[in-house]
Amino acid sequence: MSNYKIRPHHGLCTYFFKGDGYSDAFVENMTLVLAKLKGNPIVTLVSDEDVICAACPNNDHHTCTSIEKVSRYDTGVLTALGLSFGDNIPFQDFQMKIKQEIIEQDKLSTICGDCEWFPICK
Asked: What is the 8-class DSSP label of residue 36?
């Protein structure tokens, strides 16, 4: 079983992804990542570039141009789920925690309501 690095807020992005994105390359990468995550690999929660960032146009030489915003999203997810950077968790367990602790508790808009993609998640 492979281990994938993933930013905590990307757990939300993968939960709601419907084929839209920043660019064709981003959508293609996200689709491939989701296919791999369906196998329920262990994911490591990271504060830097992950498998989704790789094709993001906001990735400028391995640094996010929106780092303040995404760091806030990451912290919000970790706080809501009681997890920390560096934690390893099966992807399906991560998604279940997101559903139970963020979506069902109506915390999504508090965590990432100012995201340009937020309307997709409603």
From this structure: H
